[in-house]
Amino acid sequence: MAFLEDVWSRNFLNLFASPLSLSEYLSGLVLTAIATSAVGLIVMLAFATTIFGLSFFAIGLMIVPFLFVLFLFGIALGIVACTIVLRLGPASECFVWPIPALISPFVGVFYPLSTLPHWMQYLSYLLPPSYVFEGMRAILLGGTV
């Protein structure tokens, strides 16, 4: 989002004139994304626990690697979105926003991967979040990963 705000405000001249290197800029974007996501995660966990009675503590410490994989995948998607906008220009932003919605059926966010057609299951096995959601589902059903 911070990168897209720079695109919307046409701040590229200031960005490229600054002494920041590309790795410093990307690491700053990643660190702010992690901080923002962590705050959002804590708030959503509190809401889910108090309003819906869901206990994410039932998963135990296994939630830590699952969340780490989801954070890394989200950061990777963000970097891919930045490259699309940098390569194709600000008008390509309409290609970036639907990416999470297009990926979600393939990773089994709402249902097990076994309900998907076989061709979609093959694509699902290429995406790391599918293993996260299947692993969490297996733990909640009383099994192990």
Keywords summarizing the entry:
145 residues; mainly alpha; 8 helices; 0% strand; globular
Overview of the structural elements:
The chain is mostly helical. It has one domain. It has 8 helices and no strands. It is globular, with a radius of gyration of 18 Å. The relative contact order is 0.10. The mean pLDDT is 83.
What value does the average pLDDT take?
83
Structure classification: mainly alpha
Instruction: Give the low-pLDDT segments.
Output: none
Helix-strand pattern, N to C?
Answer: HHHHHHHH
Number of helices: 8
Compute the number of structural domains.
1
Rounded to the nearest angstrom, the radius of gyration is 18 Å
Percent of residues in beta strands: under 5%
